[in-house]
Amino acid sequence: MKTEDIKLFQQVVESGSLVKTSDTLDLAKSNISRRIKALESEIGAKLFTREPKSMRLTEQGQVFYQKSKSMLAELEQTLIELAEPTKEVSGELRVQMVANAHSLLLANTVYQFMAKYPQVKAELITTNEQLNLSQQHIDIGFSFGEQLEDSSLIARRIKTAKLKLYAAPSFFEAGQIPKQLSQLDGHKYIQTRLPNGKIFKHSLDPDFDPKKLDTVLVTNDVQVLIDACVSGLGIAALPVHLGELLVSHNKLIPLCEERVVYQLHSWIMYRSNQFMPLVVRRFIDFAVAELEKSDMPSATLPAATRFLV
Fold it and tell me: Could you give the dihedral angle defined by the CA atoms of residues 50, 54, 58 and 61, in that order, rounded to the nearest 10 degrees?
């Protein structure tokens, strides 16, 4: 019985179908089906009930999944402990990141890790969808938001950004720039959609309620957000380092005495570290160390610089 086939069985369970497993691992569906049937034959039990669009575990399959999961994890951990003192870091990393202004900085962290450990290969996946590490067979995920949604993942916070309100200089008539948050009621507003699919809802200032504004645009793209704000479409909440850069070039003006209305946290996320390949553990430690000392605000400036001309 091959451990690779047991891992393949576990991936089918976690993804829910042969098609998703085929897409994730870049294996032919027929190859996966053949190997699962061979595994069932070797075990002497039917592991799945096959349905038109999904694979459902049988009772025997449930037992085998739970037992094999812990068994393989213990085996991998034993091999790591035996080999770690002399073993060169190698293997493949699958890293998923949210498409935002920090994407290039995060990608460069992966490049630096690969330069340090030449035997490492990586796949970088950029998406605006919520991270699902188990289902998509992802080792590491980078995301941001107001608070962590998935408690099943381990998350290490990297940075926190403060957001303030800005508008184009032409948005308000001369002398009519609001000094108080309550004066924004009814004005056009550009809302941000976060990677978890939700919009901002945890205002740090009780006087700021976006529901009292007229939301005219919702976007999950920071460049669209900046472009719409600079164009005078409405008020927007922007990270301070981006907003202040645009203010210094007379593209935006700060509102309401620059009161902070939101904060965004960025995280590196992964599954249980109890049984984790050496390459993944080393990358987590490397990435956290590099990103904590990096100038993340400067890394986001390319998202704003095209608006400065």
Answer: 110
Measured distance CA(103)–CA(208) in Å, rounded: 30
CB of 308 closer than 8 Å to CB of 249: yes
Residue 233 in tokens? 């479409």
Decide: residue 83, CB within 10 A, 0-12 exposed, 13-18 middle, 19+ buried: exposed
DSSP-based three-state secondary structure for 32: helix
Q: Using CA atoms in the order 125, 224, 288, 295, what is the torsion angle rounded to 10 degrees?
A: 140
Nearest Cα to Cα of residue 184 among 252, 237, 144, 245: 237
| Biggest CA-to-CA distance, the chain | 81
Task: Quick: pLDDT tens for 205-242.
Answer: 888 999 999 999 999 888 899 999 999 999 999 988 88
- The closest of 299, 283, 279, 286 to 80, measured between CA atoms, is 279
pTM to 2 decimal places: 0.65
Q: Tell me the two tokens of residue 23.
A: 């897409």
Q: How close are the terminal C-alpha atoms of the chain, in Å?
A: 63
pLDDT tens sequence across 60-107:
888 888 888 778 777 766 766 665 555 678 889 999 887 766 778 888
CA angle 92, 96, 98 (to 5 degrees): 160
